[in-house]
Write a structure and sequence with these properties.
By secondary structure, this protein is α/β, with parallel strands linked by helices. The protein contains five helices and five strands, in the order βαβαβαβαβα. It has a five-stranded parallel β-sheet, with helices on both faces. Helix 3 links the parallel strand 3 and strand 4. The longest helix has 20 residues. It is globular, with a radius of gyration of 15 Å.
Length: 167
Amino acid sequence: MRLLVAAVGRLKPGPERDLAARYRERAAQVGRSLGFTACDVAEIPESRARRAPDRASEEATAILGHASATGMVLAVYDERGRSDLTSEAIAERVGTWRDAGRSGLVLAIGGADGLDPAVRARAELSLSFGAATLPHGLVRVLALEQVYRTLTILAGHPYHRGNLDER
């Protein structure tokens, strides 16, 4: 199964880009032994359209293009998404998709205008990091950290220690 974070916008050189790269590399390392062939990032250029709906629509075409192959799962980070799923629950879903033979998982992060309704409608899972608005670069870092955490949970690696009440 291929993992891809498709994010609108480009991270400039700096701490966010470095941290995102570190989590992507860690995820790729752990993922190889679990049946994950890649952990990549696709930076989608921000649309230059004048109207917000037109910008979101152009960006949607690119996002949906990454998720168009047969068997691809599309999950999105969206302000309307679920913030109540634990890391273990996310890992369970990803493991189920992998075990079902799904070809890949695209995690989409929209641009400044958010995600087009067509992207949200196509998504099999919509997640949120909470009600607060976060900088785009931090969302990408957090998404890649969650990919890494998901893979360590699936591998039984001690990186994720979980909730003490559940032990």
